[in-house]
Fold this sequence. Notes:
Number of strands: 17
Shape: elongated
Strand order of the largest sheet: 5-6-4-1-7-8
Low-confidence stretches: none
Largest sheet: 6 strands, parallel
Strand content: 15-25%
Oligomer: single chain
Distance between the termini: 11 Å
Radius of gyration: 23 Å
Amino acid sequence: MALRTLDSLGSLQGKRVIVRCDLNVPLRDGEITDDGRVRASLPTLRALIGAGARVIVCSHLGRPDGAPDPQYSLEPVAKRLAELLESPVAFATDTVGASAQEAVSALQDGDVVVLENLRFNAGETAKDDATRRAFATELAALGDAMVSDGFGVVHRKQASVYDLAELLPSAAGLLIATELDVLDRLTENPQRPYTVVLGGSKVSDKLGVISHLLPRVDRLLIGGGMLFTFLAAQGHAVASSLLEKDQLETVRGYIADAEKRGVELVLPTDVVVASGFAADAAHEIVAADAIEESSFGASGIGLDIGPDTAVAFADAVRGSRTVFWNGPMGVFEFAAFAAGTKAVAEALTEVDGLSVVGGGDSAAAVRQLGFDDDQFGHISTGGGASLEFLEGKKLPGLEVLGWQS
């Protein structure tokens, strides 16, 4: 059975449609610092508004532990959504209570309401099926149909993602359809050369995706904090840099497997080593096999790939027809250690083919570093979901919509 799309729901004129978006945006002092996920939801919402639906938007934000917490309110998101849609958006101060029921009852065709944070109700993320289903049943009472468009949560078996899609006529929104199309192109007959760039802090976060993609790629570039476990696996000292000792054997296996398959495994030749983890820390560039020979000795911490590596990585990316990038090359939040990440991002904008930024910290990095979304082939809205898809895992939020991996 194929993924059910909006067309499968028939006429939506006058129908109450619950849209599960992923509006989990970063907030600082009540202000949204990156509205990428809000903007990503617009095509589906506009399609539903145009079809005359009465649109009920729901999402989580942060981890409020199943109880109301003002710092995680979706009210700022509702305000931003109104600005982007250039039309009023109502806001319900609860999820399934009196405010939500009143707001939904007041909807006219083409109107939009945002419900308060789903995770203010413990039933949303409950492990107990009956508890989760009970909350989903309360949500379902608000609508006539459900559209799932929060790609960042489709790997979670949660009330609004899984159970709600079983209780109401349901279909995938345009964002999920787009994400799946792109990810499918990364796994089925990608244009070559095909390069995967992996960064971020931990190898353990990427084990599955490395295993699944090694047989499919031509080139694998390793940066970020995880690079030090690779260097250590080759016998190099890494001073006080991030190191997962329990993954050394696994990484040695990947290095051997890459060689056996003819996959070019590209590791840094130089790194930026700092005196400590701070924006203003003293730092210097050293060879990747001489980290402990820096001025900081055994207390030095690697916080970015070095300039020679940045050039090599950028050249490899630019020379590819398909590129998937997940995880920054260094601590990009600190200007002194953002050069590696910026070099990779810049090269990605110059790819003659498909360039995919794999959500999460990578998406945050390209925006913080001043790049526009449309400079890339695709910026995924779901870091964890993207990785699990590329690992070949079954995603409950997609299977409930008819998707078969």
